[in-house]
Write a sequence for this structure.
């Protein structure tokens, strides 16, 4: 009986030794890595990449904040009204152009075309309003810009005027 127990124990020891050998080879392959580096080296390299990506993300976030602040001050809304201010000229060659940022600040550029020449005027806008008196066409251009944003809209009012928001 003792001999049988020793034989069974030796057989179990051999099976366990084989399992330990396979496990040892797998662990060695895992810790050695694909390029012969250790698992610790591979994890350190990945951790360095994670920190580099985090730094890049912080830089991009800061740059994005600057761009967003700049974009609020950029011209975002445009309103254009073409009209014919004088009976002796045709073709709606005169215009009022409102260029406005997100806060409603900007200006209205007006051009009055006559046979004898063209005059150009500019009026400042603050929060969608001007200190100077606006003509009906200039007011319409401001209204179109404030209402339309970047939407393209064309309409013909009277025979004198065509308006659009760009």
């Amino acid at each position: 009986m003792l001999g049988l127990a020793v034989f069974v124990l030796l057989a179990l020891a051999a099976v366990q030794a084989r399992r330990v050998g396979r496990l040892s080879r797998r662990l060695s392959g895992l810790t050695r890595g694909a390029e012969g580096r250790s698992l610790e080296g591979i994890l350190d390299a990945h951790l360095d990449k994670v920190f580099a990506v985090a730094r890049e993300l912080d830089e991009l976030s800061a740059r994005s904040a600057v761009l967003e602040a700049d974009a609020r001050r950029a011209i975002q809304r445009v309103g254009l009204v073409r009209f014919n201010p004088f009976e002796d000229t045709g073709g709606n060659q005169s215009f009022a152009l409102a260029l406005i940022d997100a806060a409603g600040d900007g200006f209205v550029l007006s051009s009055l075309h006559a046979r004898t020449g063209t005059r150009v005027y500019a009026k400042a806008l603050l929060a969608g309003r001007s200190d100077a008196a606006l003509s009906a066409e200039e007011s319409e251009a401001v209204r179109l810009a404030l209402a339309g944003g970047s939407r393209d809209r064309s309409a013909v009012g009277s025979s004198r005027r065509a308006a659009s928001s760009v």
